[in-house]
Amino acid sequence: MDMQLPLDQINQRAWTTRDAFREFTREKMWTDAGEEAAFARIANECRGQPLLDIGIGAGRTVPLMMHMSSDYTGIDYTASLLEQSRKRFPGVDLRHMDARDMAALPSDHFALTAFSWNGIDCVDYDDRVRILREMHRVTRPGGLVLFSTHNRGGPGFDERPRQLLPRLCANPLRFGWRVLRAARLLPLATWNYRRNVRLHRDFEGYSIRTAAAHYFGIVIVYTTLPEQRRQLEALGFEVDAVYGSCEGDLIPPGQQTSDAWWLHFIARKVS
């Protein structure tokens, strides 16, 4: 693409709101069945090995990764979220670092480099390539990368604020609650959407859209199965497995489309 879109600046603003902080600090394990299946697939291979966790936010993945290995490094470029992680996990190697430039980390070192919760989608496409190149550099030959990415063929693509309108139901109390909720959320969501819609773009294999999360306050990359496979292979990876988010199903190598909200890619460094 020939223009730099300020996606990460927009998204960082959304992540530091009070509602976002409340979401990030909720006690939960897996984002979805696909993430759980992907971790189960790699756990034995990565047990006791050096692990890198990118985009840790407030620390959801820290115990998940450290269950596999205590040789763990976590990074995030949002200082306020990283501070919460440090408070929750004192003594753990957690660093303020941007995944586009991980020069402070050694090359060919980590057995697993992971970037969860679709974090790689929150920068523009050129920066996405930079991140994957850095993930390739720091991963040892034969090592694994694991990341999730929004699916352009899934139900989350091209969402609009009108989906927040209250659905009719027979229970008047429940419907009244839905009306009140819509009255609270819809103005902010509509304002965010109208502000961000100017950044929408469509390209071969991927698109940029406002996502419904954080009241339509984030702008992200949605990609296709073939494009993400192509990109990984071009950067020196071999795709080991892809899991859909909804059912945790393993997507066959030849499958070109999926109706999952997002996709979990496991790839191996081959060059």
Automatic annotation (TrEMBL):
Cross-referenced Pfam families: Methyltransf_25
Biological process annotations from GO: methylation
Entry keyword set: Methyltransferase, Transferase
Methyltransferase domain residues: 52-143
Source species, domain of life: Bacteria
Regions annotated as coiled coil: none
Protein name as annotated: Class I SAM-dependent methyltransferase
